[in-house]
UniProtKB/TrEMBL annotation:
It comes from Seriola lalandi dorsalis. The keyword DNA repair applies. This is Nucleic acid dioxygenase ALKBH1. One of its GO terms (cellular component) is nucleus. Its EC number is 1.14.11.33, 1.14.11.51, 4.2.99.18. Binds 1 Fe(2+) ion per subunit. Its cofactor is Fe(2+). Residues 351-379 are annotated as: Disordered. One of its GO terms (biological process) is DNA repair. Residues 195-329 form the Fe2OG dioxygenase domain. It catalyses: N(1)-methyladenosine(58) in tRNA + 2-oxoglutarate + O2 = adenosine(58) in tRNA + formaldehyde + succinate + CO2; an N(6)-methyl-2'-deoxyadenosine in DNA + 2-oxoglutarate + O2 = a 2'-deoxyadenosine in DNA + formaldehyde + succinate + CO2; a methylated nucleobase within DNA + 2-oxoglutarate + O2 = a nucleobase within DNA + formaldehyde + succinate + CO2; an N(1)-methyladenosine in tRNA + 2-oxoglutarate + O2 = an adenosine in tRNA + formaldehyde + succinate + CO2. Pfam families: 2OG-FeII_Oxy_2. PROSITE patterns: FE2OG_OXY.
Amino acid sequence: MAAYMVESGEDAFRKIFKFYKRRHPSPDFSNVLDFSKDVPSDMVVPAKLDPVTVSDVEATRVGLKPVRDWRAFGLQGYPGFIFISNPFLLGSQPFWVRQCLKTYPQKPNVCNLDMHMSLSDTQDIWGKSIHALSCPPSGKREPLTLLERLRWVTLGYHYNWDTKTYSANHYTPFPADLHLLSLQIAAACGFPGFKAEAGILNYYRPDSSLGIHVDEAELDHSRPLLSFSFGQSAIFLLGGTHRQDPPTAMYIHSGDVMVMSGQSRLLYHALPRIVPVPQDHTPLEMEVCSPASSLQDSTVMEQISKQDWMVCSKYIQSSRVNMTVRQVLGSGQSFPETPAYHQRTDVGQTVGYRDCPANRDSGKRKRSSGCASVDTVET
């Protein structure tokens, strides 16, 4: 059931979403594009990058290969969409996995657990989870750790799932290392001076999915949306500007980066399924045994401890982490005045700020920033 076999119509995207999500019988994945392989396709075209804007030293600082060595692709009919097949140096991904699991969920950043727990209970998600995740399986069904219950984290300007907006008074400093990584990716793709102002991290368990949506809350759509994936693989569906446009299916593997810009910035997209890492891909466990030889004094990265990697490794053996990074404001732009009802009173304690749309039962939320959930927006 390839995308081109489904005619445009009211439920075209939804039908393909449900096709790839179903468990029994398992769907046919033969029509899913895989950029990690040299599979000929009339849709796939080379993407033009600008290696001059990012020096080898700048790329190395954030764990990236020289831009000239990146494998970047575009898709016919999707101008502005760029797929970069794992541009990370061998040994670099474990650092970013550790950041996603240990560092970025820390306060003052906001996560889904804040909606149901006190801030003191979510103050140290990593510290409260490492003991259980470090122990060998007991054979008994154990309660999920806080880390395993994590579904999303927001950075910088914190996205409000209720109003589908950002605001000036709900902001915490954006991580400098992730800003630098995003800056280099954007510059190589033709967007120098990109400002990473907001981020949403999604944490996918084996049965998680991401519903059909558009990321349109940012005030400036001329700047790209960047997506970084680590851990298990996934099926990604990229549609059109209309909800009924049938999507194209593609694999996302660990280390892959997607850039949605230009006419592709406001396309509908979704993620119906997590799939195991292909056997011919280098496991991240092997990468941590082969640290990047490029870890120099100027790098923002650092070697991770064996204990930290033990926890990270156990987590990503069955899970996936995705970071989407956005520039919210254009040059000279500012936020409209926020109504008092939606003003932030404390980190994670916002009036009118509930859990993300994907955790609710309504299937009618079509245009919003997405978060991962077992209960998807569109089913």
